Amino acid sequence: MKPKHKRMAMIGGALGVLAVAAVLVLSALEQNIVFFHSPSDVAAKKVGPGKRFRIGGLVVKGSVQRQGKTIAFRVTDGSSAVRVAYTGILPDLFREGQGVVANGALTPDGTFRATEILAKHDENYMPREVADALKKSGRWKHYNKDKAGEAKPGGTK
Known about the structure:
Blueprint: H1 3-32, E1 35-37, H2 39-43, E2 52-59, E3 65-67, E4 70-76, E5 81-87, E6 99-106, E7 112-119, H3 128-137, E8 143-145, E9 151-153
């Protein structure tokens, strides 16, 4: 074999190994990607049962029900609401009327089975996707603290 052919075979082999490595990395990453959907997306059946995703919105007041270690509640973006079931310890900041993001998957009956619950940590923080969904539905209220430290609605930051 001529040196030119050996070099071409070596380059071809290296490109093949690189392609296999890229495919393996991309397939591993695909399993870990979690998309965000609003309750309206879920109601419009844009997400099927069993597919992992994040859902976010406000916890509907009066919807929290505790049955042993399982907590069930509804999350809304103002136009639709989805029932969420979670088994475990909720974050200290979890409460009705507050923003929440849940990781998990839909069950065939339409309940979102959460594996993790994230609650917002102050009145100014809301994940961008949740804020966008609430703005679309007209339920977004942004609070800005005045010089006295009191929150006043409608401020900009």
